[in-house]
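Reopening this ticket.

The earlier resolution said the output was attached, but the attachment link was broken on my side. Pasting everything inline this time so it's all in one place.
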Amino acid sequence: MDTGLGDEEILVPLSAIESYAYCPRQCALVHVEQSYADNLYTLRGVHVHERVHGGEEGESSGVPALRALTVFSDRLGLIGQADLVELRPEGPYPVEYKAGRIHRLPAELQLCAQALCLEEMYGLPVPLGAIYHAAGHNRREVTLDPHLRALCEETILAVRALLRSQEMPPPTEQVRRCRGCSVQEACLPEIVRDAPRLRGMQSALFRPRETGAEEGP
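Inline output:
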């Protein structure tokens, strides 16, 4: 598959893949506009990642493991960090940690991107990985099948196109996704979706100020 890389390579952060799959506008606000604000959900995520990243390299599920491992793919132009990689006899096994609500497909795409990086780095197949849900203390294994891989590479291309264009996508039509979003105040989804209201606000913002009649001497 064509990676879409131009003369100047645009590296795609692994975190942008999940963000884009959840909402392209959220991805643009974070990775183009650099707009980010913590909320309850993001702070929980930071806490969970600090715990897993801060653990000493050792064992996980009885096998050697690496934590907070920097991973990359030259072929796909990817860079990022894997929370935990178990070094199983058959090959690397990535485990992505999530603190709050798990958005199934976006999280699986991020995990798949980690696997693609590990395959390139280690020269071994990575057919499986897992998503660990910290709140429920449980692990769900994910099969990294050809369909998921193809969708992951398509998403990588879409993220790179977004980073290259620097354009702001419209808000997602799945309104429920806006609840709890850390960039909601910067996004203003309800206003942007209401085009007449938005045009009215823009018109009022740029309308020349009216001046009174000039006073006589």
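Reporter confirms the inline version is readable. Residues 67 and 84 are 5 Å apart (CA to CA). The helical segments are 14-22, 24-31, 40-54, 104-122, 146-165, 184-187, 189-193, 195-206.
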